[in-house]
Amino acid sequence: MAYRIIFLDHMKINPEHSLVKRVSPKKIRIDSYNFCPYLEACVQLGLETKFVCKQINEQSIQKMVEMIHPNLKFSRNYSNIRPFNKHFCEEYIELVDS
Fold it and tell me: How many domains does the chain have?
């Protein structure tokens, strides 16, 4: 449900541009191949996506995830974020112990 709310409803990602993999019973990995306005703006302005994505939207997404369930955690693998190393952004939603 968190994936649907965050990625499909909020970020408006087409499900065909997102691959969800179960990493463990409490953790999923989302590879997003969608058009990303943050990526486009960073490329055009010569900004670092690793910094911009972390500073601009990670905290707000985490707050939204916590509203779905207080023990959910959102994270990104900043080694695998566009345009560095991959053609997708690697993100996670995990149910953590309180």
Answer: 1
